[in-house]
Amino acid sequence: MARLVLDHLVKKYAAGYAIQDVSLDVADGEMVCLLGPSGCGKTTTLRVIAGFIIPDSGDVSIDGKSILRLPPERRPTGMVFQRYTLWPHMNVWHNVAFGLELRHRPRKEIDQAVKGALELVGLPGADKRYPSQLSGGQQQRVALARALVLEPRILLLDEPFSNVDAQLRVRMREELTAIQRRVGITSVFVTHDQEEALSIADRIAVMRAGLIEQVATPSELYARPATRFVATFIGTMNLFDADVDADQVVLAGGFRAALPDGARLTSGEKIGVGVRPEDLMIDGPGESGIPADITLATDLGHYRRIVADVADIGRVTIFVDKSRDVRLGRCAIWPRRALFYRDDRLIGVSDSLPLPIRS
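The structure assignment produced for this chain is given below.
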């Protein structure tokens, strides 16, 4: 397959930067997701790779060779669009074969390639059907087959499952992951859905305002988000402000914790503390921990979501096992793990906070 490198890409419009100084290295056979809110620059980045947008500066290279001067049709990329873009007057065979016909490939070769591509995406025998006769999921598979039949070195996918229902979306991304692993094709997948990115990506590049905030594996991204933005965008995170005392102890309401090794701050300095809901422990009132008031308990399938108010900290969210008998009213809580942020950037993690943490 191929290694894709984005080198300091910049694209600016009259309204401002779409992407600014975007650099990314995608390894051979790797699936990388560009994840972020609407307007963060992820689709612009994908279209720069495909050749539909020319950057103001920077470079795009595959295996060390720049493709920036190549038009889209000559780039070794295949793109699957959000809205499928199938031609309604053509049957499945002609939709998939279109690119090969433009390249004037022999009919026998096209037949074999189309048959193989349709089998790969799980649609054997669908070649004579028309898009109107297919479900949304089947249309997306045809769009994927049309991209793969050209044997691209880089597969580009722009939110390909956003137009299908939730259950089908889960099944489609499982199928895409299996196909991508089987073919071994280097892939860049754009999505705003964090669950989607976490479930299919080898690595995730989280984007914000035209910049990449962090690139990491899903597990690393969840466990050690590098910025407060990433911490709040990936999963659920309780974030609150805290002070540092002369003994390098973090103070926020009843919360007390020593800074992790290597983090030295000035007395009185304000920092941010982040705690995942599953890392907040809960006990009865009067036990060791921070006093809190449970205001809401909601069953969400295999776990229970608890909302509690904590003096001088505010509202926190706690995830507990559904077997826990949790009642509204007074309780005690304590974090077993916390992340510390200075100027919105991660400065350390405490993986085992000692008890008691209430003064």
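Interim note for the steering committee: The chain is about 25% helix and 35% strand. Confidence is low (pLDDT under 50) at residues 355-359.
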